[in-house]
């Protein structure tokens, strides 16, 4: 079975906020896109790069 969470916003996003990103997890990548422009560009990160980003963000 292939893992795919579909697109979602963080549970920490403020209700009605338009300053959010959406995230999508698969077996090998993490996708990120602007929640206001779901047809716009999507960024894709490897799992290791995503974990490194989160670790760094939590430190700051």
UniProtKB/TrEMBL annotation:
Pfam families: DUF397
Domain of life: Bacteria
Domain (DUF397): residue spans on this chain: 6-58
Name of the molecule in the record: Uncharacterized protein DUF397
Organism name: Saccharothrix australiensis
């Amino acid at each position: 079975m292939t893992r795919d969470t579909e697109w979602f916003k963080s549970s920490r996003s403020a209700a009605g906020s338009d300053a959010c990103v959406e995230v999508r997890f698969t077996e090998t990548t993490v996708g990120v896109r602007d929640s206001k422009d779901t047809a716009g560009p999507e960024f894709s990160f490897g799992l290791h790069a995503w974990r490194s980003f989160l670790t760094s963000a939590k430190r700051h």
